[in-house]
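We both want to read discrete structure tokens more fluently, so let's practise on a single case. Would you supply a protein for us yourself, any chain you care to pick? Would you write everything just below, so we can both look at the same thing?
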Amino acid sequence: MSSSLSKVFVYGTLKKNQPNHYWLTNKNNGAASFLSNGTTKIRYPLVISTRYNIPFLLNKPGIGRNIKGEIYEINDEMLTKLDILEDYPELYDRQIEPIETDSGLVHCWVYLLRNFPTKMLDKSHLEEYTETSELPYLESYDSSSEPHDAFDISKDRL
């Protein structure tokens, strides 16, 4: 059974040296290979929010900045795993976006947060996500929450 290949643009915790990068390197999730760094051609607001300091790319094209990230070529199995991680299609939209690279334009899947409180747009808009000591990404969950609660922006402080 053959698997088709897709390109995905990652901008947050899936990037190299970030806490969820292991999703892309775990062979049990499928295949992924780094292709290039890139920048969104369209501006989007990239913000850090919730009590877990999660980076969110808000689906508000034309607002924010051109976002820097990484492009990976992935197989269908990896795309399915990333859909689970990003809770697509419940929480995130996954759509093809033009990404600028040194070699030209590449069209990639990008995960964008669909429904969010408008006050998230008031947060600082980042050009690039790097885990900082001021807002470290928190992977652990308290005993009263489920891992999925990390993405429930309606329950967390924004």
Remarks:
- The mean pLDDT is 89.
- The helical segments are 22-25, 76-85.
